[in-house]
Please model this.
Amino acid sequence: MKIYSNKNNLQVLYEDNHLIVVNKRVGDIVQGDETGDKPLSDVVKEYIKDKYNKPGAVFLGVVHRLDRPTSGIVLFAKTSKALTRLNDLFKNRETQKTYWAVVKNQPPKESDTLIHYLTRNPKNNTSKAHLKEIKDSKKAILDYKIIQKLNSYFALEINLHTGRHHQIRCQLNAIGCPIKGDLKYGFDRSNPNGGIHLHARKLVLTHPVTKEELKIIAPVPDDIIWKNVEKE
Model:
């Protein structure tokens, strides 16, 4: 798909009258928070306003989020009708989201389904994985498979069955495979850019208006480790 770069260095992976999909960079926040940093949603609004010479406020609906240190696909709705339908698709798990992660240590199996029960600690913004259900825990399920063995790391492809807070980061750390750069979940040093090697690689969904199937793939960040993974 065509990638358009504007003055904000925005990578647009797909766009029509109803939705827009962008490739989030490490460090971008999807929606405004207490940091006061400019969110990706504002950057996308500016892009739409500039591209189409729109007067007044631009509507943009946030459908889902990615953690700040991660990269990859973020989907926004350009109309209220599309937002309502997309929210239903995500709520009913009618989308397929595939992630890539680069981890320390080889997972116990070449491929596996991980099931944990996560509890969230709002004080330090982390989640903890438990093997059995406990009070206030939420069930978390993902599938992973090893897609490449790198010099010092392993590249995994991950499909989510649930959408929990820091789910991939937490569950991979629970099996002894922290994500490269993720100090919060067990990795021993940070990446130079402050990000982690977790990338929202692919999104498959039914278009909320046209009903056609969309398959969107986000190029990996400009990083030698990621580039080696993408070659495969």
Remarks:
- The mean pLDDT is 92.
